[in-house]
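@channel anyone free to eyeball this complex?
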Amino acid sequence: MRREIPTFIALFVGVICIVQFFIPHRPFGTLVDTFSDWFGILQAFAIWLGALNLLRVSLERSVAKKSHDRWYGIVVILAFLLITITGLFFSGGRGFQLAGTRFDYLYVNIYTPLSSTMFAILAFFVASASYRAFRARSWEATLLLLAAFLVMLGRVPVGDTLTGFFPDGYRLSDVASWIMTYPQVAGQRAIMIGIALGVASASLRLILGLERSYLGGE
Amino acid sequence: MGHRSETIRHRGLTSVSGHLAERNNIARRHSGTVVRQGLLGLLLVVACCGLAQGQTSQPSDTSAVTNPIIAQLPAPNPPTHVRGSDAPNDNGGAIVVAWDKSPDDGAGINNVASYLILRGPAPSGPFDTVGAAAAGQTSFTDATVHEGESYFYIVSSVTLAPVPGGAPQPIYTQSDPSPSVQGRAQWFHMGRLNALIAVIILCSAILYFINAARSGKPVYIRKIGGLEAVDEAVGRATEMGKKIFYIPGTQDMDEVQTLAGITILGRVAKIAADYEARLEVPVSRSLVMVTCREVVKEAYLKAGRPDAYREENIYYLTDDQFGFAAGIDGLVMRDKPATMFYMGAFYAESLILAETGNSIGAIQIAGTAMPAQLPFFVAACDYTLIGEELFAASAYLSKEPKLLGSLKGQDVGKGIILATIIIGIIVTSIGALSLKTNDPARLGQYNIGRLFEVQ
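replying in thread with the prediction:
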């Protein structure tokens, strides 16, 4: 029964989700919203599992004197307690998220800059990854390099300046647009079609209970 | 078509109407209801001009003072033939309101700035504002109705009357109420008939090949480099005595990619248990953590190594996207794992994770169905499962006939789509070829060059 009941639930919910796509009439249309609400409730309860697990793991790291993660564990615990206590007790109750509260102060001045910093690092990673990707080690990589070169040059004004003597429609910006509109879109659509079929096939396996390893079994 | 001067109650606010008993010398001109409104009223009309269909505007003021300057201006003719019909293919929660344009919309005195759509339970009102439409439009979908209830609609043409030294004032002229209309739920969404046919064909193909595979028919599956390398990657970590990091995406259990990632985790965990390698699974969702624990525990049990299973090796970091990326990066830089798996749905954090893993020389295998993240994984990882390969991975690794059969069925679906695309290309090309030249000198001749024109 440990596997049968979850499999039946997956089958039932999966079939309802498919049926409601084709039948807008009640109760199918509203059932999916109900399932979404239930999932939201599950998530709300599960967040405590995550939070408590985070505290437990960090606490274990903090007390383990030989762990090189020790100080990170302490920082996580202190940050967790700081934001939780500030939000619960020192930010005006239910309106703790409003502008001007202490919680909001921490959010705007600590969380947001940290998050933005991580996002900004992406720029450097894009540069290093591009450098590796565009090395002409094979003819496919050379093709990629050439396409990237044309697109990058075509997207800046100097591209058209360099090819200004070409007739209209054959300048670098036009070449870049053509690459992005045709070969790029064609390749991306091929991947998208594959993904759509893969999702359909995987969903069918899950709904029919052929694939049950996510339940903890083969 | 008649003149109406009933009181209007705009949604959320009281309203009124005063009315302008002014008739001008334009033929078929009706006196209009003039509502003197305040600043919010002005904002309403300005908003009406730019609002997309379906948005609701809310006039504010309620005074019924007639401005003598406004009174001298001609009010626009109201729209005519207002009618409502049940919106097709829905759950009965929408009605499509249509009307014939006011004679002053784009013609006549051409002063219609927008239309206001009002709804009431009876022809005599009261009417509430349910939305606005820009001038030139002739329909509006009211998606706020209750199934089975009768409604009547009025559409007002709105014009902006300039006031010297002040803000322009709106003038409304109402149509006659529409006949009664009700929203009805449909039992089938006809617009999705093609999707239903495609689903039936695809599912039939998949089920057929599942049954064929079950009956012992051999199924050929091409080699997938990323999955062939799983054994090697886990073995490398074992030899080096380092950890394996497995990240099942950053989305929750309602994402099918997460399920695919967790399914592969089961296979990787079993190999790790066999090789006695240390597997760590940092996750960004609590429910995913719980599920991963079950899956890994089961894998260790199947490998005959339940004692090697450590619950604390599957842990939650944070739901926050970049917080999670920072947490993983920190762990990677400190622990320097030998192998990293990224299997599931990723967003902008994909490259941050993969580049950090690359910088420490870990062997990296990624798989995602997020097209925008695939180039990053391809650039930064040793192997990448592209799109459908992620979903095929569990069947590929398990070699179970019923799962392999589903892949074969999927390939049939791909073949059908490919054939459809080729037919489409041929038909479109023939259509383009048959387009005759516009050049008067070669009138009537076929223009092959048009095949290559960008349409």
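from a first look: Chain A has a mean pLDDT of 87.
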